[in-house]
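Hi Y.,

Following your request, here is the sequence exactly as I used it, all 258 residues.
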Amino acid sequence: MQTEASAAPQGRRAQARERTWLELKAAALEEVREVGPAGLALRSVARRLGMSPAGLYRYVESRDGLLTALIADGYHDLADHLEIALGVALEPLRGRERPRPEVPVIVPSGGTAGARLTAVALAYRAWAVEHPNEFGLLFGDPIPGYAAPAGGPTVEAMTRMGAALARPLLEAAQQGSLRVDPVLRDAAVTGPPGAMDQVLPEGMDPGIGPLLLLAWGRLHGQVSLEVFGHHTWLFPDGCEPLFRADLDRTLRDLGLEG
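Below is the corresponding structure, written out as tokens. Let me know if you'd prefer a different format.
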């Protein structure tokens, strides 16, 4: 039987291991910022921490395992920001390893669909601008030789982020206030059978699925152009005015203005 005296050292060892794991991921992110995801190497991360490569393998089995942890963390952190923007209390969120999320706007559940979509979109942009290297890790070019494990932590984290991003539009659809172009229903019919079943509630207009993708693509496209520096020559101080203008157009197209 484990005594109280023997439990205390084990607790301290677990805490020390957790601290080292957090320091390891922070060092890996620094490595990604300097050399890019494709250049991430466990030996370099070990040098940053003053550890031997063999010591590093006590925490992570491979470079791909470390990339998976970083990508999942990024999606979860982005999801935290989106959920905070939607008025979700901080306490129910997953145990945090990062500072409290700061978002431009917080809208309670009683806010209009347009206001809630605006809050989510602004939080999405703000996170991307403040975390450009992680944004690139999540949404940039594929990493040569890396494949996320099927059904693994990156899929779970990405699903959570996508659910928060889609929530305002799904709420608007359920309220009957979302404008759906009939052409989108045709696009849904031509897609793989059941492909959107995991996204849309049962019985919802199938045209909502392509509409979600189009709305995200429109907002994400503007954010990507800004984060990757394509608009710097025209907007050296940031592209928020352009992003807000495109967001206003998106709300009008969706029937959610005002």
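Residues 4-35 form the longest helix (32 residues).

Thanks again,
Q.
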